[in-house]
């Protein structure tokens, strides 16, 4: 299961639309979830609308929170999205078996068995989370809360029975306004990802759309520079979830 978890205060102002970028991610089998850390006022309202639309286009969920609730919200969203993704895959299988039926059409005892399977798969299925951090100037006062939230998210991922791999990116980068910086490559050593905050310098504009597109490229090709190292997908499993990767 593949996710992008975007932390931002909204109001993208450089490059392509982040809503269109999130829709592209969904087409690639990547769910986009968004945690909005907003201020009050008109800018906060505009940012909130953008955050909602990004998550909607990316097939994910969004939450608007203040900094004290950020850590708990990120854990909840990640777990909720895993369960939601597996439910969608299971429902797809049930529809094929029942000829268009749904989980609610099953007898109560069968339905409870399916729910147990969903819960088990949510805990054991492999998970990839690309954490994308808005490091624009307006996010600078929120850095401490973001750091605490990411540490709690790592603890939550480590507690899963299944494999959890994390990669961390931030934007804007050091060069042009549309650059993205990879802070941590895909890793299961979640403790080793904690030193990234020493490298974050909150500055510049908010190129959310280009940043999302770069992370999609990274999922596909293993690089932020397009398809230079792409080797294809040859090991996909058959059966349930085999053709449904989110």
From TrEMBL:
Family matches, as Gene3D superfamilies: von Willebrand factor, type A domain
Top-level taxon: Bacteria
InterPro entries for this protein: vWFA_dom_sf
Protein name per UniProt: Ca-activated chloride channel family protein
């Amino acid at each position: 299961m593949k996710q992008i978890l975007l932390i931002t205060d909204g109001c993208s102002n450089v490059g392509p639309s982040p809503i269109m970028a999130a829709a592209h991610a969904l087409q690639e089998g990547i769910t986009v979830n968004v945690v909005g850390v907003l201020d009050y006022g008109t800018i906060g309202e505009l940012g909130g609308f953008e955050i909602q639309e990004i998550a909607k286009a990316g097939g994910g969920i969004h939450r608007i929170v203040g900094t004290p609730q950020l850590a708990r919200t990120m854990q909840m969203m990640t777990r909720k999205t895993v369960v939601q993704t597996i439910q969608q895959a299971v429902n797809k299988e049930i529809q094929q078996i029942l000829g268009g039926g749904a989980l609610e059409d099953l007898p109560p005892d069968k339905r409870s068995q399916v729910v147990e399977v969903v819960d088990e798969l949510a805990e054991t299925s492999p998970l990839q989370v690309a954490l994308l951090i808005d490091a624009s100037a307006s996010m600078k006062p929120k850095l401490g809360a973001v750091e605490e939230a990411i540490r709690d998210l790592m603890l939550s991922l480590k507690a899963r029975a299944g494999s959890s791999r994390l990669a961390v990116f931030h934007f804007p980068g050091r060069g042009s306004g549309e650059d993205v910086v990879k802070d941590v490559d895909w890793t299961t050593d979640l403790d080793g990802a904690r030193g990234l905050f020493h490298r974050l310098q909150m500055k510049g504009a908010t190129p959310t759309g280009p940043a999302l597109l770069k992370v999609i490229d990274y999922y596909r090709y293993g690089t932020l520079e397009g398809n230079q190292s792409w080797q294809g997908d040859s090991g996909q499993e058959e059966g349930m979830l085999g053709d449904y990767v989110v």
